[in-house]
Amino acid sequence: MITKYGIPFIALLALTFAGLSVARLTPKNQPLEPFSPPPSATFKNKIGAVGLVEASSENIAVSVPLPGMVSKVFVKAGDAVRRGQSLFSLDDRDLRAELNLRESNVALAQAKLARLQAAPRTEELPAAEARVREAEAQLSDVQVQLQMIEAVKDKRAIRNEELERRRRAVAIAEARLDEARANLRLLKAGTWKEDLDVARSEVAQARSQADRVRADLERLTVTSPIDGEILQCKVRPGEYAAAAPLQQPLVLLGSTKQLNIRADVDERDAGRVRAEATTVASVRGDASHRYTLKFVRFEPFVVPKKSLTGDSAERVDTRVLQVIYALDAGAPVRPGQQMDVLIEAR
Q1: pTM above threshold 0.85
Q2: What values do phi and psi take at 332, rounded to 5?
Q3: Per-residue DSSP letter, 119
Q4: What is the DSSP string of 228-285?
Q5: Nearest-5° Cα angle at 292, 288 to 294
Q6: What average pLDDT does this structure show over 145-167?
Q7: 176 has which bridge partners?
Q8: pLDDT tens digits for 300-327?
């Protein structure tokens, strides 16, 4: 009995279990509603594009004119800045030491110029006048001696060498008197105009060198080129800032009072885009809120398409026409967000 009815019963149970297992494990295809409806527009003919929200001034990647170590950072992400406001500064100890040297050279050149302009000193005139009187007295003495020897009637009583020596002494005394008088006139005339010009040029040169160092010092403090908002701040005190194109900018800022959308239109659809065409956009993943866009301009050059991550190395094998649209004021979007853009086509 067991053999006749038991084995078929066990087989029937196994078959039933297998069928139930297969039925339970078989996937059931049920229609699912999308988490977010796809982007749509009311006009019939449309062109789809991918847009990236950016500042109306475009995103400005702030760099440094000279490489160096960052000493101070004055802003943080989200701060509103004014044009000319300091963002961060580099180490300037070497330039400040050089500025002190240049300023001392300016002071030295100015002192030399002041000394030349103050010439002659009142204390120098009496000494020069005394040398003139001394030369006159010496000339008078040798003239008297010459007259005495020339007054001797008997020429045999004097030697010709002595007479010539007295005459040469008079000539020497006259030359010394002329020299003393010339030195007195030169002293009273003051500094030569050309010497003053040279001294003034030296002062101007020293000031220019000091101004150049000051300009280098000012360049070490990086300032904001526009009124805007700090979008990113990736610089910290103690870090080295390189004066070269960086994959990650030190400071990223832009004017966020008005936001724009940079839409990438495939080159195959570029001829169908019109400036006056109606354009709407929605945030990626939220098609329930649409924003009407206002045309700003075309970027004339058709560029290779880039990934919206911002990495310049990520490219695909197509080119796009970039169209700039102005976003509604007060739209709850932020720079860097992706937007689905729909443009009414011809």
Answers
A1: no
A2: -80, 60
A3: P
A4: EEEEEE---TTPEEPSS--SS-SEEEE--SSEEEEEEEEGGGGGG--TTS-EEEEETT
A5: 155
A6: 75
A7: none
A8: 898 887 765 555 555 566 889 999 999 8
